[in-house]
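Subject: Protein record for review, amino acid sequence with backbone structure tokens
How to read it: Take the token row as a discrete description of the fold.
Enclosed: The protein record, placed directly beneath this head.
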Amino acid sequence: MLDSISIGMAGLAGFSKGIKVIGNNTSNMNTPGFKGARLQFGNMVFAGSQSLTADASRYGAGINTYSTSLNFEAGDLRQTGANLDLAIDGLGLFVLKNLAGETRYTRAGQFEFDAKGVLVNRNDKSAVQGLDADGRLGSIDLSGLRVSAPRASSNVAFKGNLSSSATDQTVSNVNVLDAAGGNHALSLKLTSESPAKPGSWLVSVLDGSTEVGTGTILFKDGLPVAGSSEIKINYKPIGQAEMPLTLNFGTEVTSYATGNLSTLAFASQNGFQAGSLSKVSFDAAGLLSIEYSNGQTAKGKRLALARFASDEALEASGDNQFQASGSAEAQLGPAQTGGFGTLRPGYIEFSNVDLSKEFGELVIMQRGYQASSQIVSTANEMIEQLFAMRGK
């Protein structure tokens, strides 16, 4: 009967742990990246204990509890709209390096750039790991990427009609940029060389009143002649290095007779000013994409993903993170390669806890706890009756 009490107490302890695990699962049903767990039960006869008596081996000694097993099924993906919220659609875990230098893994992709420009996990500031060109792990940061350097203009395009019946034409506000991003408003003075050279125009490029270059363009039947529709000059802004400029009077320019009315005008140039960082995001392959205020873009490192040969190679370490168990080694790679999943920017993977299953398990654990309690109560009553019989 004393053994019965011990068996009942083992059941109470085991089912109490089971209820604790279910309670933890249920309380984390809305936690991003959380993976539900199940408590492993075993018959105490087969627990390998050397202290079991022959009687216990014959009739059993109750239940034993082992570690929990994690369920790595994917949870629901929910849209957040945040550029640095990421979910993995398929296999893989994000790789983190915590402040102690330990490697951790997670499915909760809630990231941000800290004050130093390093991509970190929003919860504990662990550094999110990426892969360099050689496939080596390292932090993802914005070093050298916060500003887009300016680029000097090298090509200037024009559009409109240059009246073939006019004798001269002036084009103002031809804006070009130097290597420092400074703007310079040039102007053109076009002089017809007809009738001596029909369709030929002498072009003078002016910076204020200073001529900085000249050239000739040629039209035939109102269209620019191939090889004679560009003027190349070397323009040297004050205080800046000399910059080559190509003035392009190509397919957008014509020269038909329209009296003295010309619509020739500056169309575009290919330089840009310095730009500040305006948006940071990751694409579906995990490549860092940066947008700047000047319309330019840049690419950074690619996010690293990891996976293991089996789920048993991972164990929970808290904060929705996992660590390798024992000597298990992770296979690393970028998204969309080698069996790894696709990243979903602007989404977060939520808990995979199924509330209906948890409630079903809770009923089972509760019944088991009640039954174990009844065993203890019954065994106690039997002992009391035995003492009463001995007293008589």
Notes: The chain has three domains: 2-73+352-391, 77-147+277-349, 155-269. Residues 2-73+352-391 form one domain. The chain is about 20% helix and 40% strand. The two ends are 20 Å apart (CA to CA).
